[in-house]
Amino acid sequence: MKKQARFWIYHNGAVRIKLGTDQTFHHVSGGATDEGYSWEAARYTFDGKLVTCEWSTDARDCDGRMTRGGVTVCRVGDLAAGICEDGIAFPAWQQIDESQRDFAAEAMGY
Questions:
Q1: Is the pLDDT reported for residue 51 higher than 70?
Q2: Cβ neighbours of residue 5 closer than 8 Å, sequence gap 6 or more
Q3: Percentage of residues in the chain having pLDDT higher than 70
Q4: How far apart are CA 42 and CA 28, in angstroms?
Q5: How far, in Å, CA of 47 to CA of 5, rounded?
Q6: Domain ranges of the chain
Q7: Fewer CB within 10 Å: C terminus or N terminus of the chain?
C-alpha cells in the first residue's frame, strides 16, 4: 500500500496538498507588477518518507532583477510540526540548499 503525505502550504492563502508515494505536484504563479514582474515556482515530491520542495523566484522592480531558489525537505512526521497560523499547522521544512542572485549588485561589483 502506498503512503500518502498531506500538508498545507501558503499560496495566496492556505492550500492543502496530498501526495502519494512517488507523486509530484508543481505550481507556477506570477506576472506583471506595477514596477516590473514577479513569479514563483515550486515542485513537491514524496518518496514515502520525505517531502521535498524545490522552489525558485524571479523578480524585477525599480532596484533591478533578483532570483532565489532552494531545496527544502520535511519528514512525514513533521508535516504539521511547523508554524501554526489560524489553526493550521504548516510543515517544519529543513533548508537543504539555497541560492540568491542580485543582478544589480553584481553590475555594481558587489
A1: yes
A2: 17, 18, 19, 46, 51, 76, 79
A3: 98
A4: 7
A5: 10
A6: 4-107
A7: N
Instruction: Report the C-alpha gap between 101 and 98 in whole angstroms.
Output: 11
Segment 55-102, tens digit of pLDDT:
999 999 988 899 999 999 999 999 998 888 888 999 999 999 988 888
Residue type at position 1: M
- Please enumerate in sequence order all residues whose Cβ is within 8 A of that of 92, keeping only pairs 6 or more positions apart, or say none: 74, 78, 79, 81, 82
CB 53 within 8 A of CB 42: yes
pTM: 0.85
The rounded distance, in Å, linking the Cα atoms of 87 and 82 is 12
Q: Which of 63, 43, 74 is nearest to 107 (CA)?
A: 63
pLDDT given at position 90: 93
The CA-CA-CA angle for residues 9, 20, 40, to 5°, reads: 35
